[in-house]
Design brief:
476 residues, two-stranded antiparallel ribbon, GH (chains A, B), Beta_hexosaminidase_sua/sub (chains A, B), signal (chains A, B), glycoprotein (chains A, B), Hex-like_dom2 (chains A, B)
């Protein structure tokens, strides 16, 4: 009721104020590589505005992705245009838009600018994911890393293995992603220039897999008898690899992206150690008591399965740390440690010639009081000891929103605009964006832009956004 | 679109499942003083359910507050009743409710269980405030401490001093609370057993007041000339007290509660010291260079104004720390320090015979990663050195949500269920609620109850709520 009143009221206000008020230009975020703006202001007529393809552009008229983007951005630039035109055309006289003459030349610093959502620790309903994709595009993220399954739940509804979600999801009917849900996410992302990289993390983080796939997980022993609990995927059985081959075959056909994230992090060896069959396998393979060799054996097998499906593997850094023999095109993702640690790891991985993604300083699920976006902003992904060649192997980074304490109730304000700080680091020239204090007012402005576009981004500090009351939804 | 589909889907599911599923009893939060529950389950018919007044109850049939509460709670207990009855009456056969035979005797441990919202650092639209009142009632909070104005903005639209908001609010028309807004908040609160205590904090925290009330604030000097900036309220002018008398007269007629919060915290003396007129006043009054005496002088004056209006003052602890002569019925609110500090302050204030409110450990705007509700839960408000008589002077406490980093985008998930942890501490028996680990599953349950009632309370840990997808709103 209040919202309606407020909206109507704003409307009357438009009549009174807009003829005298010139809307301020909004800050551009992330900072373009080159931008020159003159103080000359020109009135623009929305009806005459046109987007156009450059003559030498690879894309030309008819490119469906860009044509759809032009339409979306027209509505973002002139949010009141459709609202006012048909019924209230007399308002147009007052609705005057201006633009400063501006030239922008732009390209990303890093090719891989990812954001991870975790839909296993809490289920995220489809609108929350689609909304996140919208907001990602506004910050020029271009990879949605979908950490779709993990220990707590298995919401991916597999065509070939339906028991995985019917037994492993929080709820078999409501807390799942159907094939059509996944298609919709991929479609929505594609139109926004975002690729979707799914992660099927194993051999650890797979408790939920075991419910719908008997014999997949290692049976843990207490003394000489099974304890009734289960550990990581059992790497000693050929049935394991048959199943994974089947699952990955399906997954790589559903997700068209050239990358598949295989996980490989945090494998606890306790259960493997307890199991006599695993012990026997270790002896047979000559692994001694070094269970990292068993993990390597497993990871090499699934990386090879993935390669045979013509996909490139991404894995967490643990896989490199255990010195596994993995194809040179595998991408390693760094998630551990304080700056000194991840810098050393950046050096080691790139020295070995692997491409690397940096996530460690962008675990955005970690929160602290105040302006913690500043930490995300001041990361220097290429500031480590190494040659120029090594630096080029840093292909980008990822903001990770792990789901222990996050679901659809708090996802959006916790992500935005904090993730946007990392987004500028991944997109913009480092020298031109070296001052966190100069970034602050631009990011505040950008946060208001997000609010205006319907993203419930939280405030950076005291103040208000001009359009916050039109766009905000509080259900009552 | 997704929501609609999901809802329709749930509906079909009801037909299939509900005849065999018995809904689990929800945990009671905060823990009642006495509760005995038998394992006997009885089916209940919503149409025959009746709330009734005890024979010896002071309230009897016709009490409008309780009658309205009965109606609200009927709908909370049977959320699907109205939905299913008119159109889908055939469903009733399947919708079977059960209740365990339960006897509860209950009363609050502390009489004053408050929650502070700060509507100056960010404006909170009316629906956000009303929603918070709903959620407060669910956790048995009974005081809404409305920190309505402060340095950044003055959203209270005064009848007698309209310039205060027209010049001091973030926006003179949209970012204000009109007289009818305030009435609506008070009405909404009253029906939920919540009193509304407004705070007009002075002499510090008043920058926004100065915009609409010239000469109220102290003009700061740089050397012998005014610097153009302003400090706290000018305590040396009789016009100051005339204005405050007028404002408080209005405010105490608008807000019917017997308390008025006068603030009195964090007064910076730099500006007072710089001003030659203030210096002259100090000399005339014999205050020497002790500016705490000037502050005392000011606070005593406004506490007396308040007393003359038949209201009881609440002030922040600073007022006691400066040893001001204030009426013995004044309530002191403790906001400073780590546990050792606030315990000592509890001892000092109660030893002097004043009633006290504890807020220091419940600054819930401070966030940290993980389950920080545990800190709020383990507070022991009466655990300080003092007599039994002193302990009784602790009349309660307040959860404070200061607004530096909070507005309507993130208020609800940041408040709930974290504030509910403090609510149980303020309501329930301390010994019966001494285990934070035992509280955890009950609070998780209660969080799901909040979700079911439409409050976007954030998760405590990994998992899901049964009704989360029906109630959740993500705008797309």
């Amino acid at each position: 009721m209040f919202l309606t009143e407020t909206k109507r009221f704003h409307f009357l206000l438009l009549l009174i104020i807009l003829h005298s008020e010139v809307e301020q230009a909004y800050a551009v975020w992330p900072m373009p590589q080159q931008m020159s703006q003159s103080t000359d202001r020109y009135p623009i007529n929305p009806q005459l505005l046109a987007f156009s393809y450059a003559r030498d552009s690879a894309a030309q008229s008819g490119c469906s992705v860009l044509d759809a983007a032009f339409e979306r951005y027209f509505n973002l630039i002139f949010p009141d245009f459709q609202l006012t035109m048909p019924v209230f055309s007399f308002l147009l006289y007052f609705l005057q838009y201006f633009v400063n003459k501006t030239e922008i030349e732009d390209f990303p610093r890093f090719q891989f600018r990812g954001l991870l959502l975790d839909t296993s620790r809490h289920y995220l309903p489809m609108p929350a994911i689609l909304k996140t994709l919208d907001a990602m595009a506004y910050s020029k993220f271009n990879v949605f890393h979908w950490h779709i399954v993990d220990d707590p739940s298995f919401p991916y509804q597999s065509r070939n293995y339906p028991d995985l979600s019917s037994k492993g999801a929080f709820h078999p009917m409501t807390h799942i992603y159907t094939q059509s849900d996944v298609k919709r996410v991929i479609y929505h992302a594609r139109l926004r220039g975002i690729r979707v990289v799914p992660e099927f993390d194993s051999p650890g983080h797979t408790q939920s897999w075991g419910k719908g796939q008997p014999d997949l997980l290692t049976s843990c022993y207490k003394g000489k008898v099974p304890s009734g609990t289960f550990g990581p995927v059992n790497p000693t059985l050929s049935s394991t690899y048959q199943f994974l081959n089947g699952l990955f075959k399906e997954v790589t056909s559903v997700f068209p992206d050239s990358y598949l994230h295989l996980g490989g992090d945090e494998v606890d060896f306790t259960c493997w150690r307890s199991n006599p069959n695993v012990q026997a396998f270790m002896a047979k393979m000559g692994f001694g008591s070094d269970y990292t060799k068993l993990e390597s054996y497993y990871m090499e097998n699934i990386v090879n399965i993935t390669a045979a499906l013509n996909k490139t593997s991404i894995v967490w850094q643990d896989v490199f740390d255990y010195r596994e023999r993995i194809p040179m095109d595998t991408v390693l993702e760094i998630w551990k440690g304080v700056p000194a640690d991840y810098r050393a790891e950046l050096g080691r991985i790139t020295l070995a010639g692997y491409r690397v993604l940096l996530s460690a300083p962008w675990y955005i699920n970690h929160i602290s009081y105040g302006q913690d976006w500043r930490n995300a902003y001041t990361v220097q992904p290429q500031n480590f000891s190494g040659t120029e060649q090594q630096k080029k192997l840093v292909i980008g980074g990822e903001v990770c929103m792990w789901g222990e304490y996050v679901d659809a109730t708090n996802l959006t304000p916790r992500l935005w605009p904090r993730a946007s700080a990392a987004a500028e680091r991944l997109w913009s020239d480092e020298e031109k964006t070296s001052s966190v204090d100069k970034a602050f007012p631009r990011l505040e402005d950008f946060r208001c832009t997000l609010i205006r576009r319907g993203i419930q981004a939280e405030p950076l500090f005291v103040g208000h956004c001009k359009h916050e009351l039109d766009r905000l939804v509080v259900v009552h």
